[in-house]
C-alpha cells in the first residue's frame, strides 16, 4: 500500500485548554488525520482517515503529587485479560516527588526502555521501527526514578509483562505465575548536552518457565 497524498499530517498537535502548562488541570487534544489514495491493490482507493485521536489530562496537584491520564479514542475499551486496562489507555497513573532527586509512579505508564523513539508521543510518529511497531510499551506497574545529578538519572521499574494473559494467544503454553517485567534504566547527558544516552536491561516472564531478556539503548548527538 502506497500513500500518495498526505493533506493533513498533524491537524492538531497539542491544544492546551488551560491558562498555562503546569497547573493542576491541563487538557491536550492530539489528533492525526489525513487524506490518502492507494494504488495497490487496484483499483485506486481514496479516503479521509482518522489515524489517531488521543485525549490527555495531567497536572500537579501539589508540589509533591502529580498525575497523568491519556486515552486513545480510536481503540476499543475492552479490558485486558491480565491487567484489566484497555489497550486504548496509555497512561492512568499518579506520582509522588519524595525529594528533589527521588520520585515514585504507580499505575499504567510507559515503560522506561533504552532509546529515544519509543517515548515519543505516538501521534508524532509516522511509523515505528519493526521492533517497537510490534511491542506493547504501556503497562501497569510501579516505578522509582533517582536523579543524583542533573545530568544523570537511574530508573527501576516493575510492570506487568503483557496486557493479556499469554494463553489467550498461545494455547500451547501455560501462563507464568508471576507475569512481570523488570527494567533497569540509565538516562545520561554529557558534554553540556552534546551527547545524550539512554540504555536499559530488562527481563520479562509471560509463559511458565520461560523468560525474555533484552538490552535496549540509544544515543543522540545534539549539535549547536
Q: Features of this protein?
A:
single chain; 224 residues; mainly beta; 11-stranded antiparallel sheet; 1 helix; 11 strands; 51% strand; globular; disordered N terminus
Describe this structure in words.
The chain has 224 residues and is mostly beta strands. 2% of the residues lie in helices and 51% in strands. The chain contains 1 helix and 11 strands. The chain has one helix spanning 130-133, and strands at residues 12-16, 26-38, 45-60, 65-72, 89-97, 102-110, 138-149, 152-160, 180-190, 195-205, 211-221. An 11-stranded antiparallel sheet has the order 1-2-3-4-5-6-7-8-9-10-11, with no helix packed on it. Strand 10 and strand 11 form a beta hairpin. The longest helix is centred in the middle third of the chain and has 4 residues, at 130-133. The radius of gyration is 20 Å and the shape is globular. It starts with 11 loop residues before the first strand and ends with a strand. 20% of the residues are buried. Residues 1-20 have low confidence and may be disordered.
Amino acid at each position: 500500500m502506497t500513500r500518495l497524498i498526505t493533506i493533513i499530517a498533524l491537524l492538531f498537535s497539542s491544544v492546551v485548554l488551560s491558562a498555562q502548562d503546569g497547573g493542576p488541570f491541563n487538557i491536550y487534544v492530539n489528533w492525526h488525520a489525513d487524506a490518502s489514495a492507494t494504488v495497490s491493490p487496484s483499483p485506486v482507493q481514496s479516503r479521509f482517515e482518522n489515524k489517531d485521536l488521543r485525549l490527555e489530562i495531567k497536572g500537579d496537584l501539589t508540589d509533591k503529587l502529580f498525575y497523568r491520564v491519556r486515552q486513545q479514542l480510536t481503540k476499543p475499551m475492552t479490558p485486558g485479560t491480565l491487567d484489566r486496562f484497555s489497550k486504548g489507555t496509555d497512561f492512568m497513573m499518579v506520582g509522588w516527588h519524595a525529594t528533589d532527586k527521588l520520585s515514585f509512579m504507580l499505575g499504567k505508564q510507559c515503560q522506561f526502555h533504552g532509546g529515544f523513539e519509543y517515548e515519543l508521543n505516538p501521534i508524532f510518529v509516522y511509523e515505528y521501527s519493526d521492533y517497537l511497531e510490534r511491542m506493547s510499551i504501556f503497562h501497569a506497574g510501579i516505578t522509582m526514578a533517582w536523579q543524583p545529578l542533573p545530568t544523570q538519572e537511574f530508573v527501576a521499574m516493575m510492570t506487568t509483562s503483557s496486557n493479556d494473559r499469554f494463553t489467550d494467544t498461545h494455547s500451547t503454553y501455560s501462563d507464568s505465575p508471576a507475569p512481570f517485567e523488570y527494567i533497569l534504566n540509565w538516562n545520561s547527558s554529557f558534554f553540556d548536552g552534546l551527547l545524550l544516552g539512554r540504555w536499559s536491561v530488562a527481563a520479562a516472564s509471560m509463559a511458565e518457565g520461560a523468560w525474555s531478556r533484552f538490552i535496549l539503548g540509544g544515543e543522540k548527538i545534539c549539535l549547536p
